Amino acid sequence: MIELADVEGSLALFAEGLAGRYLHLKTLTEHNANPIDARLTQQSMDSLYLPDSLPNGNRSDYLVLVLEQIGYRECGTFNFDYARFCELSGFLQPTPKPHTQPDRDSDFTRLFARFEDPVVARRLFLLLEALRISTHIKRAYPGAAHYLQHHNANLRAQFSAHRTRLDLLQHRVWGDLHALPGLEASVLPLTIRQSSVYTTAEATCQLYPFFHHERDLLLEELNAEVSGTEWMQREARLEDWKDDQEDLARQMLAVEILQAEDALLREGMDLAGDTRDTSQTLNSLKNEREALSRRIEMERAALRHAVGSPRGQARSFRYDEWNYLERRYIRRWCRLYEERIVPEAAANVDDLRRVIRQWRSKVRSRLAQLRPLGMQRVSRVADGDELDLTAVLEARQDIRAGISPDDRTYSRRERVQRDICAAFLVDLSASTDDPIEPPQPMPYEDDDEIPNLRDPYHEPLELAPVEEPRKIIDVQREAMLVMASALDVLGDSFGIYGFSGYGHDCVEFFVAKEPDESLNGRTLSAIAAMQPKRSTRMGPAIRHTVAKLMAAGQSLKLLIVLSDGFPQDCDYGPRRGEHEYGVEDTAKALAEAAAKGIETFCITVDRSGHDYLKRMCPDARYLVIEDIEDLPDALTKVYTTLTLK
Amino acid sequence: MSPMELLPEPYYLPVGDEIDVFEAAFNARLPVLMKGPTGCGKTRFVEHMAWRLQQSGKLTADPSLLTISCHEDLTATDLVGRYLLKGDETVWQDGPLTRSVRSGAICYLDEVVEARKDTTVLIHSLSDHRRLLPIDKTGELVTAHPDFLLVMSYNPGYQSVLKDLKPSTRQRFVSIEFDYPAFAQEAEIIAHESAIDQEMAERLATIAERVRNLRDHGFEEGVSTRLLIYTGQLIGQGIAPRRAGELAITTAITDDRIVQDAVRDIIDVILP
C-alpha cells in the first residue's frame, strides 16, 4: 500500500525532469471530466491525475503511471489531426453529422464518428495507442521495463475476467502475449520506432471489423461521451490555434506595412492610387482572425468547464489542515497554487515612488536604529583604514624569527549582511476591496429637492466628479511598498506574498517579491498590482510561507501576516459562517511556524479583531490597528521590535 | 625533439565558433572572458587553445599556460609576487601573473569572481591597450611580452547576486559564452573521455538532459559534463551503472533528499 502523498514531492520532480515542464500532480478525484480511458490515470495539459493510493502497489508503480502519461506526450498522441489522417490514409473526409459541430469536437471524436459504433472504435483506438506507448516506454526507458512488467502483471491479476475481445486486447496491452495471437501482423507496425498516432488510427480502421459486434458487451462505464484523450487533444489543438492567431496578426501587419509603403510610393510618383487588392486581403485576414478568436474563446470556455481553469503558470503544493473537531490533521487536504504577480506592462512606477517618498523619512528614522548592525570591522586584511596591531606584532615577530611574515596587517569596516529573512503575507480577500470609511448617505433636507430624473424638462444633473474612495487594499499595498523600499535600503532580505482562493482545492498564493530578488521597477509594480480576490484560507498560505522561509535558510526568520478579518472560506469548517474551524487551523499553522523557530506576528485592520486574534496568535503576537492609515508606521514598529529581540 | 612537442593534444570538441574566436582574439591580443556553468569545458578549452597556439608556433613560452584558481583569500600579492626571506636577505619572487607577463604565456584566472576585489583592479592596466603590470613593492612597471594573453572564466549563474564582475572589468574582455553541449556532442565527449560504448554514453547524455530540466530545484546548474564523464569512468572501472550514477550524479549535485529521490528515479528508468 502506498499513498500519493508519500511520494508526490519527488514524483513531481521526476515528471518535470522527464517532461521538461512543470506538471501538477493531482488525485483522480480532482478531475472534472469522466476518467474513462484509463482505469488508473488521466492527464490534462498542465496536470497529471493519479490514484490517491495504490493498495497493492509501491513507489515504482507510480513511476510507471507517470511514465505512461508522459509517453503519450512524447509520442505525439495529442497532435492528432483528423484532416491530416484523411489525407494520409486516402479516405474522403466525411460530412459531419448535422448535430455535431466540427470545431466543438475533438479530432479523435471525428475519427470515431466514422465508424458504425464510435464507442467500440474509441475503446479500440485507446487500447492500440496504449500498446504503442508501452513499447515506446520499454525502448526509451529500459530501466522501467521490469517495473512496467510487474505493474501490468498486477493489473492482469486484478482484472482477470475477460468477456470480450476488447478485454483480451487489454490483457495484450498489459503484456499477456498469449491473448489474441491472431493480431500479430496488425499490431506490428505499432511497435516500431517510426510509428505515430496515425499508425494507430490506421490499425484501428483495419481491426475494427474484428471487434465491432462487441458493443452490447462493453461495460457501462465505457459509454461515457468523451474520453480524457479527446479533451487533451482539444487542449493541444487550442495551443495550435493560438499560434495560428499570432500568424494571422503577423500577416496583417505585413500587409499593412505593404499598404503604407505603396501609398508612399504612389504619392512620390504622383499617381492616383488603387489599393483595393491589399485592402481586400486585409479585410479577409481580419475576418479570419475574428472568427478564429471567437472559436478560441468558445473552446477555452468548453475546456474550462470540462477540465478546469488552466494553471500552466502556477506550481501547486498540498498541505495538511487541522481539523479541531476531530483533533487531527486532514492529510494533504489543501491544494495551493503559487503564481507570480505579473504587473501590466504600462504600470506607472512614478506614483508608487511618490508614495514611498511621502513615508520615507518617518520609516527610515525608525529603522535607523537597526543599521549599526550592518557594519563590522574585519581584521587581518591586506588593505584597510587602520592597522591591525595584533597582526603587525605577529608580522614583526615572524621577521625576527626569520619566517616570511603575513602581510595582511590592516583592518577595515565592511558591510555585513544581517542574517534575517522576513516574509510579509498579505490577505487579498474580496473584503479588502471595501472602502475604509463607509460612504455616507446624502441627506436631503426637503423631499421636493429630489430631482425627478424621468422629467424630460428637468435640467440635467450636474454631478460632481466622484473621487474613488480609499480602500483597505490601497493602504495594504502602500504599507508594503513603503516597507519594501525601507528594507531594501537596510539590506535585509524579504519576500512579499499575497493569498486568497476559494475552497480547499484552490488556495491561491501570489508572489510579488521573493527574498533573493532585488527591489526594482518590476517588483514594485508587482506589489502595486496586488488585487482583492476571493476568500481567506489562512492556514495553507501560512504553511507555504513557512516552507519558503525554511528553505531560505537565514538564522532569524520573520512571518508577518496582514489581514482585514478572520479566516474564512467556503468549506473552511463544517458550517458556512462558522469561524472557529478557520481560527483553529490558522492558530495551529502559526504554532507550527513558531515551533520551527520562526517569529510570527499578525496585524489586522479589523477593529473587532481582539477576540479571535487572542486565540489565534501565540503569546499575543498581534496588533489591531484602529486607524488603518497608521499601517505603514505600525508595520515598521513591529519589524524593528522583532528584529532587535 | 623539444619537450614541447611531446605534449599530447588536450581533447576538446568544438560546439560553435569558439576556436576561431579565440584565435582571432589572440592574434589581436584581446583579453578573453569565458562565461558558463561549472564543468562545461572552459578550462579544457583554454588548455586546448594553448596547445594549439603552441603547435602553430604562435606561442613560444614554456609553459604556454599558467592557470590560477581564484579563491576568496587570493590577494593581489599572490598574483604579482612577494619578498621572501632567503638566509639573511630578502628575495623578490614573481607571482604567476608576473611570470606569464614576462614570459609571454597565457595567464588563465579560473573562477575570477571568487578572488578579492583588489585583484580584479590589478588586471585593468594589463587588459587594455597599455598592457602594463605595475608592481608596487619593487616599483617596477613591467611591459607585457608580445605573446602575453589574459584569459578569465566565471560562472554567472553561481552566486550572481553577491558576487559579480564590475562593468569596468567586464568591459575589457571579449566574452565567449559556454553552455553544456547538445545531446549528440555531449554523448561523443562522454564516450571519448571515459571510454565507454556509444549506447551507454547516449544514455548518460539523456540523463543529463532530463536532470537539467530541474535546474531550479536546489541546484542551479544541473549535472555537468564533467560529472557525466566521471560516471562513465566509474562504469568503465567496473562499477555498476546505477551505483556510478548515484555516486557521481545524484549525491554530487544536491543534498536535498526529495530532489535526490527524483534524480535517482530518472537515472533508474533511463539506464538499461
Count of distinct strands of chain B: 9
CATH superfamily of the domain at 420-432 and 470-643 in chain A: von Willebrand factor, type A domain
Any idea what the radius of gyration of chain B is?
Answer: 21 Å
Mean pLDDT of chain A: 82
Would you identify the CATH H-level superfamily of the largest domain in chain B? P-loop containing nucleotide triphosphate hydrolases
Q: How can the largest sheet of chain B be summarized?
A: 5 strands, parallel
- Note the gap between the termini of chain B: 48 Å
CATH topology name of the largest domain in chain B: Rossmann fold
Poorly predicted sequence stretches spanning 5 or more consecutive residues of chain B: none
Number of domains of chain B: 2
Strand order of the largest sheet of chain A: 6-7-13-12-11-14-15-16
Amount of beta strand of chain B = 15-25%
Strand tally of chain A: 16
Shape of chain B: elongated
Count the helices of chain A. How many?
Answer: 19
Q: Structural class given helices, strands, pairing of chain B?
A: alpha/beta
How would you sum up this structure, described in words?
The complex is a heterodimer of chains A (645) and B (272). Chain A is an alpha/beta fold. Among the domains of chain A are: 1-74, no CATH class; 235-307; 420-432 and 470-643, Rossmann fold. Chain A has 19 helices and 16 strands. Chain A has helices spanning 4-19, 59-74, 82-89, 107-112, 118-140, 145-158, 165-173, 184-187, 197-211, 228-269, 276-307, 349-367, 389-401, 472-490, 521-528, 538-552, 580-595, 610-616, 631-643, and strands at 2-3, 24-27, 42-44, 47-50, 53-54, 315-323, 328-340, 375-381, 386-387, 410-415, 420-427, 493-501, 507-513, 556-563, 598-604, 622-624. In chain A, strands 6-7-13-12-11-14-15-16 form an eight-stranded mixed sheet, with helices on both faces. A three-stranded mixed sheet of chain A has the order 2-4-3. In chain A, a hairpin with a 4-residue loop joins strand 6 and strand 7 (328-340). In chain A, helix 1 runs parallel beside helix 2 (59-74), helix 5 (118-140) runs parallel beside helix 7 (165-173) and helix 16 packs parallel to helix 17 (580-595). Chain A starts with a strand and ends with a helix. The model of chain A has no long low-confidence stretch (mean pLDDT 82). Chain B has 272 residues and is an alpha/beta fold. Chain B folds into two domains: 3-177, Rossmann fold (3-Layer(aba) Sandwich); 183-270. Helix content of chain B is 42%, strand content 16%. Chain B contains eleven helices and nine strands. In chain B, the strands form three sheets. Chain B has a five-stranded parallel sheet. A two-stranded antiparallel ribbon of chain B has the order 3-4. Chain B has a two-stranded antiparallel ribbon with strand order 6-7. In chain B, a hairpin with a 4-residue loop joins strand 6 and strand 7. Chain B starts with 17 loop residues before the first helix and ends with a helix. The model of chain B has no long low-confidence stretch (mean pLDDT 87). Classes of the chains: A alpha/beta (645), B alpha/beta (272). Chains A and B meet through helix 1 of A and strand 3 and helix 11 of B.
